[in-house]
From TrEMBL:
It comes from Marinobacter nauticus (Marinobacter hydrocarbonoclasticus). Coiled coil: none annotated. The keyword Iron does not apply. Residues 1-22 form the signal peptide. This is Secreted protein with PEP-CTERM sorting signal. InterPro entries: Ice-binding_C. Pfam families: PEP-CTERM. The keyword Signal applies. Residues 202-222 form the Ice-binding protein C-terminal domain. It comes from the Bacteria. Keywords: Signal.
Amino acid sequence: MKKLTQGLAMAAAVGFAGVAQAAYIDAVANANAPGAVAEQSVPEDNDYATRAGGTWTADAALYNVGDTVLFGHNLKSTSSDPFKLTFTYLGKEASDNNQFYWNNTLVFDQTNSPDDTFSTVFYGGLDKLLTFSFKNGNNVEVVNDGTNGSQLNIPGEPKSSVNFNLFQVPNEQDYFLISFDDGWSGDDNHDDMVIAVRATKVPEPGTLALLGLGLAGIAVRMKGRKKA
């Protein structure tokens, strides 16, 4: 029994070495935080925070009324290794056909349903910005770069700001909500389109194979002991 226990421990050590959670993504500030500081607080008329029935997914992470989102921020990689990104469409408040892109490829728009997902592997490297963007119904594009927060629907009209905001899910690592404001900040912002993004480790085929061999060997030994 002692040898069997040692075998299980060795298989676990081989199979799960390096699986401890690591940080893959984080928010970084730029100099383009739009609107007043008060507008960073989630208002009472925010549909995502109050969950209008039938409009939003039922089981996604929430921000609540009064929580603070990050204006003028971007999402960047904090890992030099590739990692998996999973984007989940949580819903929209806006009537405009807002769109979400990854690497200039359309991923989500008003035809999507809550809980639709898209996954990809990010190979960009350490301190690189994630390559996503939004477009609103006026075809104003907001890219995840230092310009986020500087775009306007109407030139010279600050209140027409088009931007996305970030919210780190409490008690979670590598898990953010990206909330798009398609213009005219000061309304029920942070809910015109809401996307969740989670970063996770890319499974290593070699590690998984070793784990499988270790567990298979243990199973054979157990079978032999039963026959004996």
